[in-house]
Q: What sequence folds into this?
């Protein structure tokens, strides 16, 4: 693995803390003078506890493509909003707007069939050589494991 290249990392598993680890990576990047964009999928308004990131703008910018309080199977216009998040992520990568892009719960959008594995793989391929890409979610496919440089599973032991 080339240390000069921006890594593609996945934080997955049934345990809590995936978002926290990803946000910690963004804060670490800011310490090195880098800029990070966090795009949250499926989280809804309950994630207002991350609003403290607003104090770190413009080095860290947070965008939410929310779900409403419905069952995922019932999502309709929310699917479109979440897909807009995917398109926004692609634009961020192509325009090289940041040094680190975090796609929080993008794997959840895959798990619920809102985005495809191929669409996520195309994001990985669209990433330039230096941009770090971090994705989170409970479940990761074998193809995405293979496409990533690092996959970390978080689980509750006790």
A:
């Amino acid at each position: 693995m080339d240390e000069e290249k921006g890594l593609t990392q996945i934080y997955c598993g049934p345990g809590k803390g995936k978002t926290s680890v990803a946000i910690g990576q963004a804060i670490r990047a800011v310490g090195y003078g880098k800029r990070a964009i966090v795009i949250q999928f499926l989280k809804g308004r309950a994630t207002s506890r991350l609003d403290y990131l607003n104090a770190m703008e413009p080095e860290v910018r947070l965008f939410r493509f929310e779900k409403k309080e419905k069952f995922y199977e019932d999502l309709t216009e929310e699917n479109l909003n979440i897909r807009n998040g995917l398109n926004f992520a692609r634009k961020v990568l192509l325009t090289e707007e940041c040094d680190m892009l975090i796609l929080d719960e993008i794997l959840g959008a895959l798990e619920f069939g809102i985005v495809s594995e191929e669409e996520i793989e195309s994001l990985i391929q669209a990433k330039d050589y230096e941009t770090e890409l971090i994705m989170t979610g409970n479940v990761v496919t074998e193809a995405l494991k293979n496409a990533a440089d690092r996959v970390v599973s978080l689980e509750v032991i006790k």
